[in-house]
Write a structure and sequence with these properties.
By secondary structure, the chain is an alpha/beta fold. The chain is built from three helices and seven strands; from the N terminus they run αββαββββαβ. The strands form two sheets. Strands 1-2-5-4-3 form a five-stranded mixed beta sheet. A hairpin with a 4-residue loop joins strand 3 and strand 4.
């Protein structure tokens, strides 16, 4: 399946998705409520066979918080990028994909630790690097009272 066919197939999975064919990857922006179901179909469907979650990147867009998932198919050697956002900066949350890809367990914990995004259904969501005295240092509104990072 080439990138255009892959993009068309992903659009057929759920309404509300926006697909962009990048130079390297097919990028899919989708409503947060569709993340788990679309991810599961991308893994289980023989046409996409997204068997490996390469990374999850947490993003602070200013008004919104988001997560970017890089899915790879070792069978077809293609990568699909899923992007979700939430405008809830007080209690941001997405559904966990740990039941789909085991690699998500620590990746989601890292995003939670650094940006405060919770993952519903995660089996062990707790801080990975920092203790509770820290806020969420990768947020744009984070205040560095200790001046760990100087200008």
């Amino acid at each position: 399946m080439n990138k255009t066919e892959l993009a068309e197939y992903i659009l057929s999975l759920a309404s509300g998705c926006e697909v962009k064919e990048g130079k390297q990857y097919v990028e899919v922006s989708l409503p947060a409520g569709l993340l788990h179901s679309v991810a599961l179909r991308l893994r289980e469907d023989e046409r996409t066979s997204a068997d490996f979650l390469n990374c999850i990147t947490g993003v602070d867009y200013g008004r919104d918080l988001g997560a970017v998932y890089h899915l790879h198919s070792s069978k077809y050697n293609h990568t699909i990028v899923l992007k979700v956002r939430t405008s809830d900066r007080v209690n941001p949350a997405f559904d966990s994909v740990t039941d789909i890809w085991r690699s998500a367990e620590f990746l989601e914990r890292e995003v939670y630790d650094l940006l405060g995004i919770k993952f519903n259904g995660h089996p062990d969501l707790r801080r990975l690097f920092l203790d509770k005295s820290w806020g969420f240092p990768l947020r744009k509104d984070y205040v560095d009272d200790v001046k760990i990072v100087s200008k």
